[in-house]
Design a protein that fits this description.
This protein is of the alpha/beta class and 395 residues long. It is built from ten helices and 13 strands. The protein has a six-stranded mixed β-sheet with strand order 6-7-8-9-11-10, with no helix packed on it. It has a five-stranded mixed β-sheet with strand order 5-4-3-12-13, with no helix packed on it. Interacts with GPI-anchor proteins (via the GPI portion). Interacts with TMED10. Pfam families: Metallophos.
Length: 395
Amino acid sequence: MATIRLGFRRQNFCLFKRSFLLLKLIAVVFAVLLFCEFLIYYLVIFRCNWPELKTPAYDGEQETLEPVLKAMFLADTHLLGEVRGHWLDKLRREWQMERAFQTALWLLQPEVVFILGDIFDEGKWSSSQAWADDVERFQKMFRHPHHVQLKVVAGNHDIGFHYQMSTYRIKRFEKVFNPERLFSWKGINFVMVNSVALEGDGCNICSEAEAELIEISHKLNCSREEHHSSQCGDGQPLPRSAPVLLQHFPLYRRSDANCTGEDAAPPEERGTPFKERYDVLSREASQKLLWWLQPRLVLSGHTHSACEVLHGAGISELSVPSFSWRNRNNPSFIMGSMTPTEYALSKCYLPFENTVLITYCGAAGFLVVLILVHFGFLDLPFLFGCQLLRKFKTV
């Protein structure tokens, strides 16, 4: 009877040990998943702060603070489609963008978010059903409260390059995203350009795009006049503020040779010459935009890397890096504090993809060691050290 009881106790002890091991494994897996898929986004984005403007606005002898608009700029999300999108790639990278965006909204509370093109990866050839599916995924990932405005410009992957672009694709895009080209808020003018249509070859779509920009230029010029001329009409004038130009293609530059920073293009690629109308806008289209709109700031995407360039009379252009791990290991977005007369920009980096992968690999290695130690295939370092000390004492 005693032998049976002893065997029963040993069996219960073995079951307890196995259950305890299973609990430890579950706890480690849960902790790692919680950290890599949720907490890391809060820890990284929590360090980002809205930039402060250098000087306040003055009205006569009294200081009057202008209302500051908090704007967030991101680019090149490239949501994968049904043709080139592997399910695991979709799951990993889209979850990353969703968590990053939702965390940024909660922690930073921007008032408006601008996405600078290439929202989708296969919009240039996707079927109606595939397009609807991609739009549904986008709206889930980039959901936002009603008080936050989301503005989008078209990229070449959304409607195709000039030779692929069609009225149908543009209308399909504009049906989902507001087609407005001019957006004003808190006295700040934003001009959102369909830069894909600035080919300059006189096609119908290109001609319409240029006509829209000329009309916007006319409205902006009227807003700068002290007294409105008869040509400006009686409509509501725009704020007297030089606009912020938002587009997908960068303005013309020879290459990224002068770009610096950890999120610039790789050194071996920076000297590669850019092709006009493919990598950047043509010289002619760039000059027209600067002349027509006279912006105080230009933000663009497309290159997936960061770069700051000065055009003409010191007009700054900032190329916004990709928001997706699919395009770079260290994605980021731009935070802008803006008034009608000033702006300040700062960059907020997202978690690095290799940091998450290294964490997972380290956790997997730890689990393997834990299992081997439990079944006696590997001694813990301190047990091995104790055994060595005992041998030395007996000698």
